[in-house]
Amino acid sequence: MGTFIELLIGAMLTPAGFVTEAYLVVTMRNHWSSYYKWLQKGRWSWLGLSRQFVRLILKVVKQEVIHLVIDDTLTLRASKKAPGSQIHHQHGNKPNLAQYVRGQCWVSLAWVIRREKQPVALPLLTRLVPGISNTGK
Hints:
By secondary structure, the protein is of the alpha+beta class. It has helices at about 1-15, 20-25, 30-40, 45-60; strands at about 65-75, 85-90, 100-115, 120-130.
């Protein structure tokens, strides 16, 4: 299980975020197709992975104060069938976009650490805001 977590964490931290790049960086024991099948069809929990990632960071990064950041990101979508796709007010006031746009709202939790005087955000969990119920809360 440790190598799977290393693979997924490596995928989150690579610039492109691809599992293939993480596989090339981390020394793996099995053929890449084993991990691909595990990611596609395996039974595992994103919350469990996030907890393991936090445990790993706590062991590696020694900080007295932990800074957590919550951010919401709007991903533009054209299809009404996309999960969580609905009309959102576009707060960025970008001149090339309408005031109201169709998109998905993603909410992320990250741990901010200082590394060589430069802050770095380590993503812990990202969730899609559901398209039904009172999503503004």
